Give the backbone structure.
Amino acid sequence: MARSIKKHRSKAGLAPGTLVHVGEQLVDSARITVMNYDPDNCREEQLKSIEAAGEYRKADGTTWLNIDGLHQVEIIEKIGQIYDLHPLLLEDILNTNQRPKVEQFDNCIFAVVKMISYDDQKQCIQSEQVSFVLVENHVISFQERVGDVFGPVRDRIQNTRWRIRKLGADYLFYALVDSIVDYYFTVLDKIAERIEVLQDEVTLEPTEKTIQKIHELKREMLFFRRAVSPIREMVNSLQRDESKLISDATRIYLRDVYDHTIQVTEAIETYREMIGGLHDTYLSSISNRMNAVMKVLTIIATIFIPLTFVAGIYGMNFDYMPELHWRWSYPAVWIVMAAMFVVMMLYFKKKKWL
Amino acid sequence: MARSIKKHRSKAGLAPGTLVHVGEQLVDSARITVMNYDPDNCREEQLKSIEAAGEYRKADGTTWLNIDGLHQVEIIEKIGQIYDLHPLLLEDILNTNQRPKVEQFDNCIFAVVKMISYDDQKQCIQSEQVSFVLVENHVISFQERVGDVFGPVRDRIQNTRWRIRKLGADYLFYALVDSIVDYYFTVLDKIAERIEVLQDEVTLEPTEKTIQKIHELKREMLFFRRAVSPIREMVNSLQRDESKLISDATRIYLRDVYDHTIQVTEAIETYREMIGGLHDTYLSSISNRMNAVMKVLTIIATIFIPLTFVAGIYGMNFDYMPELHWRWSYPAVWIVMAAMFVVMMLYFKKKKWL
Amino acid sequence: MARSIKKHRSKAGLAPGTLVHVGEQLVDSARITVMNYDPDNCREEQLKSIEAAGEYRKADGTTWLNIDGLHQVEIIEKIGQIYDLHPLLLEDILNTNQRPKVEQFDNCIFAVVKMISYDDQKQCIQSEQVSFVLVENHVISFQERVGDVFGPVRDRIQNTRWRIRKLGADYLFYALVDSIVDYYFTVLDKIAERIEVLQDEVTLEPTEKTIQKIHELKREMLFFRRAVSPIREMVNSLQRDESKLISDATRIYLRDVYDHTIQVTEAIETYREMIGGLHDTYLSSISNRMNAVMKVLTIIATIFIPLTFVAGIYGMNFDYMPELHWRWSYPAVWIVMAAMFVVMMLYFKKKKWL
Amino acid sequence: MARSIKKHRSKAGLAPGTLVHVGEQLVDSARITVMNYDPDNCREEQLKSIEAAGEYRKADGTTWLNIDGLHQVEIIEKIGQIYDLHPLLLEDILNTNQRPKVEQFDNCIFAVVKMISYDDQKQCIQSEQVSFVLVENHVISFQERVGDVFGPVRDRIQNTRWRIRKLGADYLFYALVDSIVDYYFTVLDKIAERIEVLQDEVTLEPTEKTIQKIHELKREMLFFRRAVSPIREMVNSLQRDESKLISDATRIYLRDVYDHTIQVTEAIETYREMIGGLHDTYLSSISNRMNAVMKVLTIIATIFIPLTFVAGIYGMNFDYMPELHWRWSYPAVWIVMAAMFVVMMLYFKKKKWL
Amino acid sequence: MARSIKKHRSKAGLAPGTLVHVGEQLVDSARITVMNYDPDNCREEQLKSIEAAGEYRKADGTTWLNIDGLHQVEIIEKIGQIYDLHPLLLEDILNTNQRPKVEQFDNCIFAVVKMISYDDQKQCIQSEQVSFVLVENHVISFQERVGDVFGPVRDRIQNTRWRIRKLGADYLFYALVDSIVDYYFTVLDKIAERIEVLQDEVTLEPTEKTIQKIHELKREMLFFRRAVSPIREMVNSLQRDESKLISDATRIYLRDVYDHTIQVTEAIETYREMIGGLHDTYLSSISNRMNAVMKVLTIIATIFIPLTFVAGIYGMNFDYMPELHWRWSYPAVWIVMAAMFVVMMLYFKKKKWL
């Protein structure tokens, strides 16, 4: 099964706000990168230790602090101190089983989003939790591992010709969320391909594996939908909220993200319906196969059982069976049997079994 | 499969507001037509270049600017400059995977609608995205290709006897949306015909293709519903909005569009239910066929296997089988077998298998 | 199929407000009747032409103008002039594919309701659109054909002992809608009978026709529900509205109509569930029949194939088969075969196949 | 079928407010009982005629007037006069097809509830409509027949040690509704038993009757849910309403009834899910049985058909068949056939068919 | 069946507020423990009688009174007197069929939660009702039996280094509810394991028991969801309420519980979908098995029935059958039969039946 059931590695028994990494360790050591830019300058740096991040706290312009890898709890703790973040917020960053959500704190906006990609080898959806903290002039992003879909955003920041350099941290926050949501369309296309492959398989040679693949795909879609649909309400609440951290100009862009999320959700629904159709086709294909098998059996048995009976009759050993001694009995029996055969064949033709 | 899964040709990685045409190029070069009218005059012109459209910007009366073909991004860009439109609005016009929606901007109302037609050859629904921008005294419409359902509206504009000449741009906008929605009924009738054809096929000679056609049709309906149902909320929000661009008189007409949309949605639901019924009928027809095959096999086997056994008995070569030497054994065996045959036939008659 | 798919005869391309009759012509020429009454007098008249209706416009008391037959567009147009009705309202009266609804205009309340009856011959639901216009002191009703369920209301108007004579046009409007809704119960009873007939058919002798009848009935229920359920919100909006045309006393009576509509809707839901049950019973009955056929085949084959084998053994022509020459071989073989038969029968008894 | 489809005996054609008993006549003549109590005294009386009820109208303390039997319309009419009740209210009391509801009138609260019991003999749910009218200091209850679940309430009234004596008519009203709702739990337990019986039947010996019983039970649950679920909104609206007839102290108790109704509804949902499970188990049990039958047929046929073929070979009468004359042919054939038998058996063992 | 249908042991007929224990008696005698703590001190004591609890009523700091075992009604009654609790609240504590809920009383907040655990032996979910009463500085918890998931909370109270010592009764109340909700994740993991076991069983060797296990598990999930989902609205209403008993700081923590509840609910939904998939896989596996059986039968019968017919022909005893006397007839027949065999095999190969 492509998607094994995710264990929850429950934190039951720990005090709330205790910082424990819940999830798999996906990198050896966390990588911390920082970008600081204003319309004229742009500085990018990979930090050796989290302490260095403190220097940027009071920097001018917009700062994007990105952390790849969550298992080093002390890093998260330190960032919490630098930016004065609520312990429950830090706990949520570390728990990678979060549901996408947005929460308003006094000094920041906290958002959790699922970055979805498609693993071509395992043929399944890969999900990585990305948390964003938007504080004044700063966006802090937390990823489970190195590698993301933010490349184009980085390029735009480095290049003066794009608006992003002129707009603040809220626009950066929007641009990052937008690039995650845009990537969902790429994943949708991969899934569409997989559905097409399965459609062929169901029609041409369905096996017991096919039904399992169909159910796996159905579950993938469920998983995908669950990752995407809360983003809708999330963006919605960002738009409505009166927080000063997000400007009106950026709110219009958020409306665009909202539209994209609806599009993704509808595509997922369509795919789910199509997968349901695959299931029906599979079942009816099984029935048809059974039907074909039964027809062969019936045709053969219906033709030869009566003929064998006729042969059996003249295999009897009675002393007084006049036909046995007639000259033309044997050819006559052959003719009778041929006639029976022809009648049967006509019957099957009429029934459209042949 | 009639409807292949639409690829999303994701724009992932592009800056928001970047104008890129997302969709197939359906015409060689864009065709720009303009109609300018007031109660007394009506001028229609096909523009050679988009620059000429600028002249109409300040024209008196009502102006309808129509663009067929979206792949020449510079045209859309130019219109954006002439009418001062938001970059996200232009981006939405170019992305033909939009969901029907209406958006209020400071200086305009922007609406996206799906124009649905039925392709008799491919037996599937064709969808074309039409975007409308309603600014003061102007309606700008963007279509993916030449050819639309606006002919009657054009006729009414050209003819002085119709009210449309006396009413403003908001009424024109309504009339265009209305003609798209009215055309949905024509498509519904085509689908109704196709359902009737499938009903006959399911009852008379269902094959494995039939189930696939049923699922295709189901998916078509899903696609149709998805194109139609957002129009309801769209019209609703137009009616409620306090925008000065739409007069109260036109709002009453929008209520009519709203009613039509509900009617279309309900018809779609009814058809979906009927297609579900086709599916059930297909499955039960498969079962019945299997039943019929089994009955033939059972009747033949049940009659002849026992008779063959009787013949087998008297084919044995024991030295001491007194019956073999009796004078009337052979006819007696025939009588016994005939009796068995009759009993079987009566049994099957009673069971209503014959 | 009892209910063929209704064609929409789309008006696509016509200007909104154009008066065109959409629907079948069901009467030769429209019949116009008028009743004018107050607590003391009651006058009933069949009008020769619609012009005569103008006289009643200023009459005292309550006036009920009833038009049977909609294809003579000029009559509707004339009434529109007499009562100063909005063109879209007139258009809706003529389009018999309307969904039940109520609309408030400045000078009137407009309501569309479906009058449902049951055609015993065709065994299907008949629907007729009835439109009501409630203006001060006047109720105008439009029906597609002669014949309705308003007989008892007419009787009550003609008879002084009933309250209806003392109450105004709003009460008359209520009484007419109420008599339509009350008649739904009669239709429900007809459907209940039909379900009972189908229940017997499914249990006793289900054929391929049965499943089609089940689906037809399901579709009838869908159609019925669609005709009934909008009445609920319709009555609701009448109760809430502040229109002066409806008095508070009548509003209490509308609450009663509302209750009845809920009752009808719930009955329809129950029937739908029962029809779903019929479908399941049908499928399981098909399976059981298949099972029965297979059992007969299995019993006969299982008994006689081994016996035939035994007979076959002693039909072999080997020179050295000692059993063939023993004195009691033949009876012994019979005993062996009888024993095999008994063992088989006991086995089937144990398996409860007999 | 346990629950035949209820006929609606429509009142179509009668004037609204006309008092006609809709339902079966369940008692010979109505029984009228009255209880009048205050903290110190309690008087219980069976009235000979409804006129005597008038005396209690102005009595001190709390009065409970109970009418068993609704077919004597004149009694209901008289009560309407004594307590000044709206004609539609009286009509609703007489129509026993009401849906549970609560209605506020100027001078009273009117409630309709279904009293549910379980008929062990017919194995179905029995429903009786109970209407309550709460006027100042008075509760009037109308039942279809003698016999109810109010015994414990009567006992508590007769016994001074209970609070009910000290609390007013609103508490009495609550206590009566509460005792009806509490009795639903008893009915739920009966249904639970019936589900357990059906579970055994489905697993051990499912017949065609079983599927019908499952559907009957499903319908019973539907009926039950329909009787119970409106009580929720009903109690809810009683709690919210500002009516002076219900004190704040009683409102807290109504919250309790509300909780119970939710519990009953959830239990019904669980049972419906379980009945759905029964249905699935039944279908898969039918499939398994078919499978078992087919296996027996296949095993027997697969073993003996090839063996019979071997015997058939040596039953041929060719002049030149050397094997026929060999000394050990006959035992050799037996050995070959035994070997074939063993191979077959091993094959079936491997396939786990034995 | 793992989960037998819970009986309701209805209290029908008892006065509301009558204290009767509804549920099984799970302990011999109730165990009463009390913890009293402030930032500096912590005292834990097991009380011999409930009278001793009265002393703590006026104690400083935060007091947690825990009662294990509900069948001794007098204990609950006494606590009701000490803390002045409403009789309906006490009744709800004793009725262990409550639905999770929260209720605001004048002097306290009352909450009912289900503590869920997984019984590895019986392979089913165990549920225990826990009621909380939050009064000023006091939390009173009522459990059905000894043993709970509060161990870690107790540890944190005993240890000065945790915040819980510094925070008040509302935080304690939160901590207790949180530890119950956290434990749900542990139960989810157990269920995930069980689903994996069933997945193997369905694929490898499905029996009739399997379908029953699937339905049991489905019912368990239903039961689980029912226990969990009301907590969501419960926590929600706690957050919104303006009660002074809960501080704003604690409200933020409650948001966290809310998130967890959503996560649990979504996991349950995913599992339900997976169980549905198991059901489908089971059914298609049954069909495939039937198919396999039929193929074996068809192959064997189709090969040997025609061969047996050929042998039968030459077993006939006609005097004039020239083939019988030809020298090479016998080998020729063998060759013919071998050819037929080969043709059949090729046919089956082509059909992919082998």
Q: What stands out?
A: The helical segments of chain A are 53-56, 73-83, 87-94, 151-158, 169-204, 208-240, 248-313, 329-350.
